[in-house]
Amino acid sequence: MILDVDTGIDDAMAILYALNRPGIALEAVTVTYGNIDIANATRNTLQILELGGRDDVPVAAGASKPLMKPFSGGAPHVHGTNGLGTVELPAPSRRTAEEHASDLIIRLARANPGQITLCPIAPMTNVALALVKAPELATLLREIVIMGGTIYHAGIGGIPSPIVSANIWNDPEAARIVLRSGARIKLVGLDVTMKTLLTPGMMAAIACGTRAGAAMMEIVRFYLDFYKSVRPDIAGCPLHDPLAVAVAEDPSLVKFEPMQLDVELAGEITRGQLIADRRSGVSPNVDVAMEVDLDRFAPRFVEALRTVGLT
User: Fold this and answer.
1) Is residue 292 within 8 Å of 247, Cβ to Cβ?
2) Do residues 92 and 129 make contact, with C-beta atoms less than 8 angstroms apart?
3) Which residues pair with 133 in a beta bridge?
4) Rounded CA gap, 137 and 233, in Å?
């Protein structure tokens, strides 16, 4: 697996989850803007990998802004001014790889045809750039498992389009390139991630485990406080990015509906919205997660985070 991240709080949890799952061999992490600017996202990525005891995983920085517009500044109200809930981790002991994130994706896919699952849990600018540089990437990858989008669930507050997720909104043009690439694609969006909550009880269980898990739960408090501030009745904070990584490892955690999806680019109140064409005779291009088995995923997540970093 290659993770493509904009490391804020749920990306950090997703990285730690990937490090401690038996079915995932994390070959590299590529970084872009999104939750935070790319400099902070890159530092956070290195810090989280070191927290999890895996400073051997290559990290490459990529796009610092969307294909067609400036970077909007991220979401410090959700992830904190540093992207990690204002918690300060030790400075990373290493630097990133010299190659651009998109080039690393292409290189690893060419070296391992049919073996790499690419899991973008960020705006898909790096992935789009890789596909433009090397269109054959669509068939070289085993599949692309995307965190983003929504079909029925309400979108993210603060975005003009009401049925849009942040990862798609941040670069709709890149999302269109990916969806139209011909790659095998699974999409894990708000229809399932907003049902997949990290509860205070789960947090307590994780915090009683390793140092890495305890530190991660300290970071998560900021994220939980944000969701409580906008939805006082919510039982926890959504595990957006970790669920996508989990589905990449085990697709049986969700039920999919095949759909023909495209991204609206021009609409005044629909820019960034995923449009599903369900008309008869239309061929699907994406398997969209519509139901999630929380009873199977939740304990798996707790165990992975509770024991991450053990040697």
Assistant:
1) no
2) no
3) none
4) 44
Instruction: Please give the pLDDT value at position 247.
Output: 98
**Domain extent listing, the chain:** 2-307
pLDDT of residue 158: 86
**Strand-pair partners of 4:** 30, 120
Class of domain 2-307: alpha beta
Pairwise CA distance, residues 237 & 93, whole Å: 31
Predicted pLDDT at 92: 96
CA trace torsion 7, 11, 16, 20 (10° rounding)? -130
Identify the pLDDT of residue 311.
Answer: 56
User: With DSSP H G I counted as helix, E B as strand and the rest as coil, what are the percentages for the chain, rounded to 5?
Assistant: 40, 15, 45
Q: Which amino acid, residue 78?
A: V
Blockwise average pLDDT, block size 10, the chain, 311 residues:
98 98 98 98 98 97 97 95 97 95 98 98 98 98 98 93 97 98 98 98 97 97 96 96 98 98 96 94 97 98 95 56
Amino acid identity of residue 184, one-letter, is R
Please classify residue 274 by burial: count the beta carbons closer than 10 Å to its beta carbon, then call 0-12 exposed, 13-18 middle and 19+ buried. Answer: buried
- Residues marked active site are found at 240
Distance, CA of 132 to CA of 126 (rounded, Å) = 10
Q: Count of residues for the chain?
A: 311
Tell me which residue of 34, 32, 29, 48 sits closest to 92, measured CA to CA: 48
User: Is the Cβ–Cβ distance between 198 and 159 less than 8 Å?
Assistant: no
Tokens for 191, please give them: 């229809």
